[in-house]
Specification:
- The structure holds three protein chains of three kinds.
- In chain A, 76% of the residues lie in helices and 0% in strands.
- Chain A is globular and about 75 Å long.
- Chain A is mostly helical.
- By secondary structure, chain B is an alpha+beta fold.
- Helices cover 26% and strands 33% of the residues of chain B.
- In chain B, the strands form four sheets. Chain B has a six-stranded mixed sheet with strand order 6-7-8-3-9-10, with helices on both faces. Chain B has a five-stranded antiparallel sheet with strand order 13-17-14-15-16, with no helix packed on it.
- In chain B, a hairpin with a 2-residue loop joins strand 4 and strand 5.
- Chain B is elongated, with a radius of gyration of 25 Å.
- By secondary structure, chain C is an all-alpha fold.
- The chains are: A mainly alpha, B alpha+beta, C mainly alpha.
- At the A-C interface, helix 1, helix 3, helix 4, helix 5 and helix 6 of A face helix 1, helix 2, helix 4, helix 5 and helix 6 of C.
Chain lengths: 282, 344, 285
């Protein structure tokens, strides 16, 4: 009995340690965000540990600023277009290679590795050189951003679509549909697409948050010509600190919203899945 | 011409041949089983009949029609997969209706057919359930109903029971067999489980290394294995060569070089009781090693001149008193000594 | 013969064309162009190794390489240590709390670059809350601290590497089965012995792989450093960007050579990661 008691005590001590670790971690992770929040709500914050008085003035100012809306609008536009184009191009490719040409998947592995090996700063050099002049002079426009964001997000789209295909056993489903009289297109549309939708939506949301946070490409390839939210924030930071902090908090709320959606969708299943009272046989 | 005719089918993956000149036929309403170890080519053959795998050469006919170059959807076959392959986004009803919808049938036409099928597979009341709300056995019944509702010319079953646990497997295989008889459905069934094959089939084709080793009724395959491979695969046959048997002390060995002897045809006679030499029997002396109780039979292992003989005896004969290393006499009827073709 | 379906199959490969064109135009071509430029002289002519010679000979660029590797190495190391401790604590809680912690980590990985730099300025900049607090409490520790220097930058790098590192280290703990611990303790091993002889060796490939991903992640980073210090702190990415998009005269050839050097360092990191995951796969993990 003694050992059990001793064990129990040790376990309780261990538990306290783990709780302490998590609490410290959470403080560490949230401190910069809380600091920014306080700053955005402070009337002014100079030479004090905490602000003396609070105000919503900075948010009001921000929400009255057309430039802010434009920046958000541009970023939303570029992310929606990019994600839509990427999905349209990538999903059929991943499907065809996964189901019919499994050997060809190596090709995709290479294309998804490249953005990791060549970060934006590196690939921007060639992009500036090639697309600033000549037949396809698109730097400084939204098109170059869509082009490069496609390259940035395709690894994530690939991973999640492929995982979804694996989870639903897509190869068997397609074969079953074909034997039942469905053509390849019908099998894809009716059987595969509805089942990979949740996973694909999650990947799309993650892609949105990536594009919302992207700074390097938008600074180096378009700069002020097409001011995205990150560029707006950077410019704001140089002029008014407190209104910039309001932008950061808004940005963070957006990330929070997207993460919440991802969490919801991650556990989302097609109709009827929830009340799964499993009926056993006999 | 038979209802299903497969002629000289060859297939290789790169340099590796998986189907070597396979020819066989299935009669209308027959339940044929392709039996063999994993990697023997049986699934590849079944998938080739469904049109899911290409073949390199050969021809295939169903009901006299050449289906060799048709795509799967035009072959009028039904197929049930090991993983069930039910569509997770569709209810039981929609899964079963899928094939009929693909055949351009109207809702009013297919609804009664689907309802009837749901009744046949005994899932009434579960029409609106989704696959993940069903047990494995129920899911496989839906898969079966989904394939049968289109009245395919041939039903193909690719190890449909192997993902289920033993009890459900036994009851479902009987259900499949009954359903098949009722509908007179021509069926090709793939399995690696010899017991399963022996209980359900009209006829069995044993495959090994992309070739047909032997075909015949369950009874023929079980009692008259033609090759060493079949004898070893089908059951716990004692497979002995002539020199081995001579060394074990048998006399009057029938003609042949290699023999398969089922454990249950050998009888154990205690050494003390000096029995007469019956004509038509071979005798030898051995020593009891150990035994295992397999339910209603006891399997004894007897050492006869270095050979291990498996002997099955009903579990009520009182032989359990035999001690280790006790000398026993074994008697084998000569007619039950099945000569085999040499391995090759 | 099954010829028809074979042709149909080949037709399906047409869906690859847009992807191949896109990746070619916006990924491969720029990379090739960059490699090509790195072997040209300042006027964009001829073939020369001069840009590489200058990259290593000039103290400025040599320092930027060293700084980049240093800050990546230390930030990855510290973030790994934090993650090893924190991820283990996370595994000790219920599924719900675990999921929540992972979601928070995932969310914070987005808090990088400009917003992060800005938040750190508020806390640790010249008049940041912590600096004021330290001054009023009379702490000397923070007195000499300058956020806009190497050590300040290191702090921000550690911050954004930490959640990523937790996300990567957490699954590695799951390779350790509780049966192993039980078996080890029945065989007389203490907790320390278990981690020393079984736990750590099992996790090692995964941890080294994580480290190399963190290295690659921080080597290529630009936004945080740029937002915090402009072009004042000498990092490889800052130098490259300044050379190709700075207000002074651009030098694409030299920028390309530096970029190739950076890419090679990153490829080595990723190669190590690949080797490590192969190593764990061979053990069936």
């Amino acid at each position: 009995m003694k050992t059990v008691a001793a064990n129990g005590k040790r376990k309780a001590g261990g538990k306290r340690w783990h709780v302490a670790v998590i609490v410290v971690l959470l403080i560490y992770l949230f401190l910069p965000i809380v600091g920014t929040l306080l700053f955005s709500l402070a009337k002014e914050w100079q030479d004090e540990i905490f602000p003396n008085s609070y105000t919503l003035e900075w948010y009001a100012q921000l929400l009255a600023d057309m430039r802010f809306y434009e920046a958000i609008g541009r970023t939303v536009l570029v992310s929606v277009l990019t994600v839509a184009i990427t999905l349209t191009i990538m999903i059929p490719v991943i499907f065809v290679l996964h189901v019919y040409f499994p050997n060809g998947e190596k090709l995709l592995q290479i294309s998804i590795m490249l953005p990791f090996a060549f970060p934006p700063v590196v690939s921007a050099i060639g992009l500036i050189k090639i697309y600033s002049s000549g037949p396809l002079a698109i730097t400084g426009t939204v098109w170059i951003l869509i082009a490069v964001y496609f390259v940035l997000i395709q690894p994530f789209i690939y991973q999640s679509v492929r995982n979804s295909l694996n989870t639903i056993n897509a190869i068997d489903l397609v074969e079953a549909a074909e034997v039942l009289g469905a053509g390849k297109m019908t099998a894809f549309r009716k059987v595969v697409l509805p089942n990979i939708l949740p996973g694909t939506l999650v990947a799309s949301l993650l892609s949105f948050s990536m594009i919302f946070g992207e700074f390097v490409m938008s600074r180096m390839l378009v700069g002020g010509d097409y001011e995205t939210i990150q560029m707006f924030l950077y410019n704001q930071m140089k002029t008014s600190g407190q209104s910039a902090s309001a932008v950061v908090i808004t940005y963070f709320l957006l990330i929070l919203l997207l993460s919440g959606l991802v969490l919801k969708l991650g556990s989302w299943k097609p109709r009827g899945y929830k009340k799964a009272a499993l009926q056993e046989e006999e | 011409m038979s209802f299903v005719q497969v002629e000289h089918v060859m297939k290789s993956y790169g340099e590796v041949p998986v189907l070597k000149d396979i020819s066989f036929s299935v009669e209308e309403g027959e339940f044929l089983t392709l039996l063999g170890p994993s990697g023997c080519g049986k699934s590849t053959l079944l998938r080739a009949i469904a049109g899911l795998n290409d073949i390199d050469s050969g021809k295939m006919f169903i009901g006299g029609r050449d289906i060799t170059s048709l795509s799967p959807k035009d072959r009028q076959v039904g197929m049930v997969f090991q993983s069930y392959a039910l569509f997770p986004n569709m209810s039981v009803f929609d899964n079963i209706a899928f094939g009929l919808k693909m055949g351009k049938m109207k809702k009013a036409e297919y609804t009664p057919l689907v309802e009837q099928m749901i009744e046949i597979i005994d899932l009434k009341g579960k029409e609106n359930y989704y696959p993940n709300q069903l047990s494995g056995g129920q899911q496989q019944r839906v898969a079966l109903g989904r394939s049968l509702v289109k009245r395919p010319k041939v039903l193909l079953l690719d190890e449909p029971l192997s993902a289920l646990d033993a009890k459900i497997r036994r009851s479902l295989r009987n259900e499949i067999r009954q359903l098949q008889r009722k509908l007179n459905m021509t069926t090709i069934f793939v399995t690696h489980d010899q017991e399963e094959a022996l209980t359900v089939s009209d006829r069995i084709i044993v495959m090994n290394n992309g070739e047909i080793e032997q075909q015949g009724t369950s009874e023929e395959i079980y009692t008259l294995p033609g090759t060493e491979f079949v004898a070893r695969f089908i059951g716990s046959y004692n497979v002995w060569s002539r020199p081995e048997m001579e060394q074990a002390g048998f006399a009057d060995i029938p003609s042949g070089d290699l023999f398969a002897i089922r454990p249950e045809v050998i009888s154990i006679v205690p050494q003390a009781a000096v029995a007469a030499h019956d004509a038509g029997y071979m005798y030898t002396i051995g020593y009891m090693k150990h035994y295992a109780i397999l339910g209603n039979v006891v399997r004894y292992h007897v050492d006869i001149g270095g050979l291990d003989a498996s002997v099955d005896v009903l579990n009520d004969s009182g032989l359990l008193h035999l001690r280790e290393n006790e000398a026993v006499r074994l008697a084998i009827p000569m007619e039950k000594c099945q000569p085999l073709k040499k391995l090759g | 013969m099954a010829r028809t379906s074979a042709i149909q199959n080949k037709m399906m490969l047409l869906v690859l064309i847009p992807l191949v064109l896109w990746i070619g135009a916006f990924e491969l071509l720029p990379i090739i162009r960059m490699i090509f430029m790195s072997f040209q002289d300042d006027a964009g002519q001829g073939f020369t190794l001069g840009q590489y010679v200058e990259s290593f000979a000039s103290p400025l660029y040599r320092q930027s390489i060293v700084n980049s590797i240093k800050i990546s190495f230390f930030s990855s190391g510290v973030a790994m240590l934090i993650a090893i401790i924190c991820a283990y604590s996370i595994t000790r809680f219920t599924t719900k709390l675990r999921d929540r912690m992972l979601m928070i980590s995932n969310m914070i990985t987005n808090f990088v670059g400009v917003p992060l730099a800005f938040a750190y300025m508020i806390l640790l900049g010249g008049n940041g809350a912590f600096m004021v607090m330290a001054r009023e409490l009379g702490w000397d520790l923070l007195a000499g601290f300058d956020l806009y220097s190497g050590s300040g930058l290191l702090l921000t790098y550690i911050y954004y590497q930490t959640p990523l590192s937790i996300l990567l280290v957490y699954p590695i703990y799951y390779a350790i089965r509780s049966e192993w611990k039980e078996a080890a303790s029945l065989l007389g091993a203490s907790t320390w012995n278990f981690w020393r002889y079984i736990g750590l060796p099992v996790m090692l490939p995964g941890l080294l792989g994580t480290f190399s991903i963190l290295m690659a992640n921080s080597l290529g980073a630009y936004a945080t450093a740029y937002a915090l210090t402009g072009i004042n702190y000498n990092l490889l990415t800052i130098r490259i960007a300044a050379l190709v998009s700075g207000d002074i005269f651009p030098n694409f050839q030299l920028g390309s050579a530096l970029a190739v050097i950076l890419a090679v360092i990153m490829l080595i990191s990723l190669f190590i990661n690949e080797q490590m995951s192969r190593w764990s796969r061979r053990r069936g993990l």
